[in-house]
Amino acid sequence: MDLLLIISCFCGITLLIIVIGIILIPSDNEYIRKAPYTRLVNEVMCYTGGLLQQNNIKYFPHVELRYYRNKKRNGLHLSEGKIIIYTKSHTDVTQLISTTLHEIGHHFQMKTDPKEFNMYNDYSKKFGYENNPCEVYARQFASQHLLPCIDYLLSKGVIE
User: Which of 26, 52, 61, 105 is a Cys-bridge partner for 141, taking CB atoms 3.0 to 4.6 Å apart?
Assistant: First the structure.
């Protein structure tokens, strides 16, 4: 009898975890792009405009879209403040938005803490890409702003 109770509890908890996962984690195909890539990326930039202003950053980064897949990366931030987004490297709209925010995160760091940002290559050698503090910051920035940015893009009709 105790074994049956344990199995029932386990099944119930497993089902609850699956239901919570379905509700809280958007599927890869949940959002559909309703505008050209240029408008989508520009609207992500507009979303960050207030954040730029709050941090006394006067200019948006220059953004260049490349309409092909890059085997090594989804996006790139160059030291002169230019962002490159490889549109075909993304499997879904959420990933494209996240990459754009990630690269804007690098721009924020470059403008607000240039000394730290200039250590990027040294950090990569010392810690590797995943643990590079500049990459950790950019991932946190993207994660923090992803859902509010998606809400903004939905309100603008850029995605649905």
Answer: 105
Which residue ranges form the domains of the chain, and what is each CATH number?
A: 32-156 (3.30.2010)
Check whether 5 has a pLDDT greater than 70. no
Token code pair at residue 30: 């949940």
Sheet holding 82-86, edge to edge: 62-66, 82-86, 75-77
Answering whether pTM is above 0.85, one says: no
**How many whole angstroms separate alpha carbon 75 and alpha carbon 103?**
7
- Where does the chain show beta strands of DSSP type E? 62-66, 75-77, 82-86
Structure tokens at 155: 């309100």
CA 60 to chain centre: 17
pLDDT over 50 (residue 15) = no
